[in-house]
TrEMBL record:
Residues passing through the membrane, by range: 24-46, 183-204, 225-248, 406-431, 460-484
Region (Disordered): 499-518
Keyword Cell inner membrane part of the UniProt annotation: no
Keywords: Membrane, Transmembrane, Transmembrane helix
Protein name per the record: PepSY domain-containing protein
């Protein structure tokens, strides 16, 4: 073997050792979050059938020949919760034999954001009260909370707002309050991207691993080989899908997602509607049980024209009839008008009707109706959004398993199952490989391995890390913490070793043979 070939082989081995070490430790860190995301994602993906199965007494009723007026159903629901609750939305039955759902929020609680609404169910044929629940309760409710790591609930930190730097008028707040759990999810998502990229690198064919199959499962080999092949095959097949899920999920995160929203609106603004609006935004009506489309969150709630001192609001029954005439999708929610006072003058809100969530991009629609006349103020659809907003909404619809119907639901299901298989096989690989009486964890990088690592590889990894850290600041900060901690540990380890005995050319690190990657 020539000197050049030997040097190349030594360099490849060094890179593989270091990438494997990175892949292992990142996998160990990200595995618990991946398991939570996969399990809760499966529940959310099938939330509607699960809800009807687990709570059939609330959702399903005996179909009758006539129905009770919708406003009477709302009044029945209001009596059940009492005066301490404010009406939040009304969802008429989405099919014959289904109940009416009326949402309330505590009068003394937050009026905006992901408040925990109380859902009351009424039989539309008899007007009978069926029951109530918190939207965050039960299997589906807990899955929604866990999947977002409790979102913006709990302790918060104030982080700089990109939107405020770009457009202080549109984004007057200089900081964004971000829940610690959501921030943890965001930085973990960055490390999951590193996990997927390092896994693809380890799988990529190269001469030093000529015995390693690419898309073949050596099931008959048994032991670690079997789990290695299943781990690699699952990861490679699903890696592109998982990367898309991570990227689309980040657009929905509290910090990076809000900054992305501001960037998207600035670079590719949506078509504005020439109509008076109220101080409220559509995002104020966002609930975990009734989400507002991502691109519509910053849309204003348009105002109704004053109807004079004797004018009265049209009924929910009228809104329901008008909405069905506008061909909104059954399962839509009617949000009542919210009036406000500015400078001593009353600004009248409008009835706001949104299609059921989750939805396809083509189903993203908000209907604004004058609260006095029922006239359509405007009809907002995805076609009015900017290009980046539409792309983001498309990614979210794919993420939720809705955009292509059954195909995307199957893909999402396989992705969740694939994540669980990858975590399980990764654990089994480690279990089979660990030596008797040892942990089998990758040791520190030896001086010999560090010296053998090609400089161009070090530069490429550094550039990629810096780019990812700048694009996703939460990940970038966590990366600096990890590098700083590792540097301190390395210095202390070297100091202790020098105090005991001189360090040899190979200090015992990198305990993974190259053959273990085959």
């Amino acid at each position: 073997m020539s000197t050049t070939a030997a040097s190349t082989r030594q360099g490849d081995a060094a890179v593989l050792r270091r990438i494997f070490r990175l892949h292992f430790w990142v996998g160990l860190f990200a595995a618990p979050v991946l398991v939570v995301l996969a399990c809760t994602g499966l529940v959310i993906l099938y939330s509607q059938p699960l809800d009807h199965w687990l709570n059939g007494d609330l959702f399903t009723v005996a179909q009758g020949s006539t129905t009770v007026p919708l406003d009477e159903q709302v009044a029945t629901a209001q009596r059940q919760v009492g005066a301490g609750y404010t009406l939040d939305a009304v969802t008429p039955p989405d099919a014959p034999g289904h109940s009416t759902r009326v949402d309330f929020r505590p009068s003394d609680g937050p009026a905006v954001g992901e408040a925990n609404a109380t859902q009351v169910f009424v039989d539309p044929y008899t007007g009978r009260y069926l029951g109530r629940r918190s939207e965050l309760s039960g299997l589906v409710g807990y899955a929604n909370q866990l999947h977002r790591m409790f979102g913006n609930d709990g302790p918060k930190v104030q982080l700089p707002s990109l939107g405020h730097l770009v457009d202080p008028v549109a984004y007057p707040n200089a900081t964004i309050p971000v829940g610690v759990g959501n921030l943890w999810m965001e930085l973990t998502a960055g490390w999951i991207l590193v996990l997927l990229a390092s896994g693809l690198y380890l799988w990529w064919p190269r001469a030093i691993q000529s015995a390693k199959p690419l898309l073949k499962l050596r099931w008959g080999k048994g032991g670690r080989i079997r789990w290695r092949d299943l781990h690699a095959l699952t990861g490679v097949v699903l890696s592109v899908v998982l990367i898309c899920y991570v990227l689309s999920g980040l657009t929905w995160s509290r910090y990076w997602g809000e900054n992305w929203r501001a960037f998207s609106a600035t670079v590719a603004p949506s078509v504005s509607v020439a109509a008076p609006s109220t101080p409220a935004k559509m995002g104020d009506y966002d609930r975990l049980g009734r989400r507002i489309a991502w691109a519509a969150t910053d849309d204003p709630v348009y105002a109704s024209q004053p109807g004079g001192p004797t004018a009265a609001r049209i009924s929910f029954a009228d809104v329901d009839r008008i909405t069905k005439g506008e061909n909104m999708i059954p399962g839509f929610a009617i949000i009542p008008p919210s009036d406000s006072t500015e400078g001593g003058e009353t600004v009248y809100g409008s009835y706001t009707v949104v299609n059921r969530w989750p939805q396809k991009l083509s189903e993203q629609r908000t209907l604004y109706l004058d609260q006095f006349t029922g006239a359509t103020i405007t009809n907002a659809t995805a076609a009015q959004d900017g290009a980046l907003s539409r792309l983001t909404s498309l990614g979210i619809a794919m993420h939720m398993g809705n955009q292509l119907g059954v195909l995307t639901r199957i893909t999402a299901t396989l992705a969740c199952l694939g994540v669980l298989i990858s975590v399980l096989t990764g654990f089994l690989m480690w279990w089979k490989r660990r030596p008797a009486g040892g942990t089998g964890l990758p040791g520190p990088v030896s001086d010999a391995t560090r010296a053998a690592t090609p400089k161009h590889v070090v530069k490429a990894v550094a550039i990629a890390a810096v780019a990812l850290g700048v694009l996703y600041p939460a990940f970038g900060v966590s990366l600096l913490v990890v590098l700083g901690t590792e540097a301190v540990v390395a210095v202390r380890r070297r100091t202790r070793a020098e105090e005991v005995e001189p360090v040899s050319a190979d200090d015992g690190g990198d305990d993974l043979p190259v053959g273990a990657l085959q």
